Amino acid sequence: xxxxxxxxxxxxxxxxxxxxxxxxxxxxxxxxxxxxxxxxxxxxxxxxxxxxxxxxxxxxxxxxxxxxxxxxxxxxxxxxxxxxxxxxxxxxxxxxxxxxxxxxxxxxxxxxxxxxxxxxxxxxxxxxxxxxxxxxxxxxxxxxxxxxxxxxxxxxxxxxxxxxxxxxxxxxxxxxxxxx
Length: 180
Ligand code: CA
Fold this sequence. Notes:
- The chain has 180 residues and is of the alpha/beta class.
- It has helices at residues 11-23, 34-43, 60-70, 84-92, 105-119, 153-164, 172-179; strands spanning 3-7, 27-31, 48-52, 75-79, 97-100, 127-130, 133-136, 141-144, 147-148.
- Strands 2-1-3-4-5 form a five-stranded parallel beta sheet, with helices on both faces. It has a four-stranded antiparallel beta sheet with strand order 6-7-8-9, with helices on one face.
- α4 links the parallel β4 (75-79) and β5.
- The longest helix is centred in the middle third of the chain and has 15 residues, at 105-119.
- The chain is elongated and about 70 Å long.
- The relative contact order is 0.10.
- Residues 8-10, 52, 54-55 line the site of calcium ion (CA).
- Residues 8-10, 52, 54-55 line the site of calcium ion.
């Protein structure tokens, strides 16, 4: 289960976000100020940080800067400020996205889902890769440097077998017995 750290000092919003995210299948933890974030961060890893900009003591930008000293965890910034300068400042700190309040919860969930999928490698388990080659077991397609390969079923199975066990040596007999 993906773990999301919610950083928000307003209890109502913190609770609302927590409820929605847990309903959507995430595990959540919450922090109300920057110091609590950094402490939470040292205790357990998170898959994503939802970070409000307006926080007491350390603001969200400073919290993000400190997180980035030790981690490339995806950060989504949440704020009432929608000025261009604020957003650019966030992107300068290598945040992954920016959501302004009031926000739509379904859209926020969708953004988080996309960012988490990308952070998790961005592929479903049905794909195997080697350099420019991608073999998708669900669609039974092989793509080399962006171009689909025209393979027979047998060729596809051979390619899949090799990609699934890189570096392994197969004898002709082994392959024939598996593929026939
Ligand atoms: Ca706040």
